[in-house]
Amino acid sequence: LVRTPFHQGNMAELALDNNHIACTYAALILHDEGLTIDAENIVKLTTAAEVEVEGFWPGLFAKTLKKQGDLNKLLFTIASSGGGGGGG
Question: Quick check: 29 and 45 in contact, CB under 8 A?
Answer without folding.
Answer: yes
